[in-house]
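Section: Multi-chain targets

For targets with more than one molecule, the full set of components is provided together so that the structure can be written out for the assembly as a whole rather than chain by chain. Components appear in the order listed by the source. The example entry contains two components.
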Amino acid sequence: MKRMIWFTTISILFMLFIMPAIMASLIKMTPADDQPGYGPRRLSIYGINELSQKFISKEKNLTAIGTTVKNPNLKNKKEVVLDLYDANSNLIRKSILNGFNIGDGDFVKFVFDAIPDSQNKEYSLTLSSPTAAADEIIEVFLMDNTANGIIEYTFAEETHQGGIPMVTFHKPENKWEIIKEVYSNWLSKLLSPHSRKTE
Amino acid sequence: MKKLLLIAIVLRLLVSAFLFHPDIKTYNFQASFLKKGVVNIYSYLITNKATLPLKDEFVYFPLTYFILGGYQMVTSGILGSGFDSWLADAGAGSVVNNPNIFKYLAILKFPYLILDIGIAFLLLNYFKDRKKGEKAFILWLFNPFTILIIYAFSNIDIFSVLLTLIAFLFIKREKLWKASVFLGLACCFKLYPLLFIPFLFLKGKDLKEKILVSLIPIFILGAVILPFWSPAFVQSALISGLTTRIFNPGFSIGFGESIIVGFFILSALFFYGWLTDKKNNLFNYWTVFLLLIFSFSHFHVAWLLWIAPFMVILAIKKPSLSLPIFILSALAIAIPMFYQDRSMTISLFRIYTTWYDLLPTPFVVLQKLYDPYNFMSVLHSTLAGGSLIISYYILKNQEES
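Its structure, encoded as tokens over all components, is:
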């Protein structure tokens, strides 16, 4: 019985206090922000209909860009391409996914090699599905505000404020950085005066 | 003992506060309408679906609604004014980032702690031999399985489990009337205790008692659910996927007919008890029935709690079964962890950080190495094989004794 007491106590404490660190160590990239809210407005992307968007990376080691993508009736099985340009319009990264792997309404991440000095720099992305026909569209949502460093988007040669509700992801310097961040986030919530007092 | 009880309570409070399964928020959001005077939650949710932030139906029985809603009324002073807006918050991130979440979860799961400790004390008094009772008490309090099932998954089935155990203790003392009342009350939270009625029927001394003890639970259940009987109730709670899933597995015998495994097991045990066993040891039948049900159905992790007190009793009665029971329990709890459902594993930890949303589930990780469905089938087949032998062992020893 003693063994069972020890086993249970240790396994529960391990699950609550050590397991979060192990899980944190498996995280390969972290988001700069939460995904901003968006409405029902959408743009269809196929063939030459591509979307360009300017944004500022808030952190260093930019390694992925994520947004919500619709693939109506899962018809798009063609390449979906994200090109990333620097402020001088030089193509610096390219990420290609296959529409076959994109569900309707999935949050899709375009991953590329990390850009070490990305902090506070302006970039421009282009999202396209060049070989898709009109009945193989993918759709992206639109918002007007400039959250998450989003500046403006261009579609059909028209430029507007806002863009797709995107999130930038950044490669951490090391595992410890993430583990520290996870525990400090948890402790700050736990020790927050709001978590103890009755409102 | 007191020190152990204290440690057990601390462990439970920690799991309560730090692990979050979204179900607890959903059914407490629904139960919060009792404060606003809503009596028939089933039709209310369907009528107001368009305007409600959470669209789920209330899948539990009316007594659950009144108990949870009533508890919220009593604790509203401690929960604070922000509680209702937290319940109604549909944002996946904001819900777990609310600094009050620890308090909310600890308070919402507190009734489970009372019932859980209640089960421990029932087990303490189950055996005539005090030492065996103490072993059962400790084994209930110190096994990681029930702690996880009750507090991590916010398992509301504990109401039925406690009442079923009380019913069983009355059966042990030959008080079948009281047992049938408690079984009826248990059915008002979850339907599964209804499946024990055939065995209660066997236990009756004469036909009159057999019929009465079988009908009492049905009358109690009827009295509680009939005022709410409506298409909304039937659809949401009575024939919901979770309620009927237990009878889904079956195999075709042609021409549209099939053998339903759950009923097959129930019938086989009933006739076995009727024809071969004059003592009718209901512990054996309930335990064997549940063991075989879990072996042959795609069970919800919460269901494992139904059998947990009986497994503790069995492990104490037959110490040679302790290790096999431990291994089968670990297998049983491992199977749902490989479901595609994130809230079975990674999402439980979202209070620590929502970055865990970036991690793949065990299903996805396994998918890179092997077919996860095959893997789950291997686990489930092992569970079924082991359960079958334990069932045989229980029934064989019954014959010998």
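The first strand of chain A starts at residue 30 and ends at 31.
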